[in-house]
Amino acid sequence: MVFKAIETDTSGSPDKVSPEIIEAGYHETESWMERISEAEGSELQSAITASLQRDAEPHLLQYVISELNEPMEDGTELNDEEKGEVFFVVKTVIESLKDQSKGRIIELE
User: Fold this and answer.
1) Cα 104 from Cα 67, distance rounded (Å)
2) What is the pTM of this model?
3) Which of 17, 25, 35, 42 is the most exposed place for a label (fewest CB within 10 A)?
4) Alpha carbon distances (Å) from 31 to 11, 28, 36, 91
């Protein structure tokens, strides 16, 4: 879904992403997760919301979060650790691809 959004927003084929860009995306995601993990209790939700609004792709990340909270097609649900792992990977992909986009990948209309 993330790649298709980038592909739709980019004229021609998206550029290849180098290992250095992926590593930088990984470190950015790691830093983001550390900032969020500092918030506790009732502050956590507002910290996530505030952080998402400052992010380059807030709408795409909100979509990812909402999908992670939905049961899979077979009815099983991911536990919190699994959701965190999937989110980390997807956010790293978004971070790695975001510079190929002319603007935000997904905009609210």
Assistant:
1) 19
2) 0.71
3) 42
4) 31, 5, 9, 12
